[in-house]
Specification:
The structure holds 2 protein chains of 2 kinds. Chain A is mainly beta. Chain A is about 0% helix and about 55% strand. Classes of the chains: A mainly beta, B mainly beta.
Chain lengths: ~110, ~110
């Protein structure tokens, strides 16, 4: 079975600080990896995804993530955060076969102006 | 397309009552997921359908929960009888294909059982 671990449950940063949110997954085969964002009171929206090819993927709003296969990691980064980035961030993995889309527990990011 | 549509948006019910949550996936999508979100446990996958067939229901908490997908454009999640610990936000999501596509989420149903 696949699983996802997000290291930080709560992160507080000041505006313009750099961000890195950790994500590790567990699955033996080919996986597809996702980061979703949930703004307060809203549904989940896709930030970026990795299927194959270049392990450094760029998403919306200046976010990027790097897939490191040897470390089973898919960390999310942003060089300079804004107050509007305050949200919950979820890493997700989808393996092959009968596996659905499995989410980590999420990281609550608060950006202080 | 209007996206994934869930109804109702909010539901308040008394313990012991039956609750039915509804989901209309994006047209053409063949995978549908039901998730439950709580502060304590985060986002849990309850059940996953592919081509209207339940593929994995191992996340369904107990027999009080049941889900159906009678056709490609409609799914229900039923709780009978409901309990206060079922209070959560329930999300439905859909995707096309299997591996390399993202899921699109509905706005969710906030369920409160009193």
């Amino acid at each position: 079975a696949q699983s996802v671990s997000q290291h930080n449950h709560h992160v507080i940063l000041s505006e313009a600080a750099s961000l890195e949110l950790g994500c590790n997954y567990s699955y033996g085969g080919t996986v597809n990896l996702f980061w979703y964002v949930q703004y307060p009171g809203q549904h989940l929206q896709l930030l970026l995804k990795y299927f194959s090819g270049d392990p450094l993927v760029k998403g919306i709003k200046g976010f990027e993530a790097e897939f490191i296969k040897s470390k089973f990691s898919f960390n999310l980064r942003k060089p300079s955060v804004q107050w509007s980035d305050t949200a919950e961030y979820f890493c997700a993995v989808r393996g092959g076969g009968a596996d659905g889309l499995t989410f980590g527990k999420g990281t609550h990011l608060i950006i202080q102006p | 397309d209007a996206g994934v549509i869930q109804s109702p948006r909010h539901e308040v019910t008394e313990m012991g009552q039956e609750v039915t949550l509804r989901c209309k996936p994006i047209s053409g999508h063949n995978s549908l997921f039901w998730y439950r979100q709580t502060m304590m446990r985060g986002l849990e996958l309850l059940i996953y359908f592919n081509n209207n067939v339940p593929i994995d229901d191992s996340g369904m908490p107990e027999d009080r929960f049941s889900a159906k997908m009678p056709n490609a454009s409609f799914s229900t999640l039923k709780i009978q009888p409901s309990e206060p610990r079922d209070s959560a936000v329930y999300f439905c999501a859909s995707s096309f294909g299997e591996l390399n596509t993202e899921a699109f989420f509905g706005q969710g149903t906030r369920l409160t059982v009193v």
